[in-house]
Design a protein that fits this description.
This protein has 236 residues and is an alpha+beta fold. The protein contains six helices and five strands. The protein has helices at 4-18, 34-54, 67-90, 103-135, 155-161, 182-195; strands at residues 139-144, 150-153, 197-206, 212-224, 227-235. A five-stranded antiparallel beta sheet has the order 2-1-5-4-3. The longest helix has 33 residues, at 103-135.
């Protein structure tokens, strides 16, 4: 049979390990015992470290010594290292690999390799799109549907309107300012918003030196980063 004193100690340690909130005080008969106090402090250290690590706090100071406390310190150091590696990968350094977290390491490294491949594929696709976009013989622009802000333009558009790169600074130039006939603009926008596209609608617009142009405009709404944009091709 376990004595009442031992039972009270076991109940105290059980509460310390298992309960969300610990209000129980140490049994009076062992509150000054050196071995009890050492074990009590170790369990409280392990409990506090587990809570902080579980909440993602990797800066928590873990004091004490012993096998279990040492293992928790090693886990904390590994998670800190993993955080640093993750930030490096996020900044574009795909040379980083994890070799210190067992089975997780393989899964993490596979994810990193797939992410690197996906980003390279996206960069190649973007480069290909940019090349095609710039070589389209007709003036072509991408604008925001909400306010007409110019997002992208090709060389043919610059040649047709005589605007320069400085004139067409991204985020500052508004394509709506080029319309000459406001009724044409209203009809164009109404059709675009209603159907999602416009085909060969005749529009009059002016270039940099207020020289007038007449073009057949075909446009389609596209989504970029979740935001509606208009891709427009203007044929003279």
């Amino acid at each position: 049979m376990i004595s009442n004193d031992i039972q009270s100690i076991l109940e105290y340690f059980k509460d310390l390990l298992n309960d969300l909130h610990v209000s129980a005080e140490a049994p009076e008969n062992v509150s000054n015992d050196a071995t009890f106090l050492e074990l009590d402090q170790a369990l409280k250290t392990i409990r506090a470290a587990a809570v902080e690590l579980g909440n993602g706090n990797l800066s928590h100071s873990i004091t004490g010594k012993g096998y279990v406390v040492g293992s928790i310190k090693n886990l904390q150091a590994s998670l800190r290292n993993l955080t640093w590696i993750t930030k490096a990968i996020a900044s574009g350094d795909f040379s980083q690999r994890v070799h210190f977290l067992g089975d997780f390491s393989e899964a993490f490294n596979i994810m990193t390799e797939k992410l690197e491949t996906s980003i390279r594929d996206l960069e190649e696709a973007r480069s290909h799109f940019e090349m095609v976009f710039q070589t389209i013989p007709d003036a072509t622009v991408i604008t925001k549907v909400a306010d007409g802000t110019l997002v992208a333009y090709n060389r043919a558009f610059m040649e047709a309107t005589k605007f320069t790169d400085a004139d067409l600074s991204a985020g500052q130039f508004n394509i709506c300012d080029l319309y000459i006939d406001l009724s044409q603009q209203e009809n164009f926008i109404k059709t675009l918003e209603g159907d999602g596209f416009v085909e060969n609608q005749e529009l009059r617009f002016h270039g940099k030196n207020n020289d007038q142009h007449i073009g057949l405009v075909s446009s389609k709404i596209i989504i970029i980063d979740g935001v509606p944009h208009t891709l427009s091709v203007i044929r003279d």
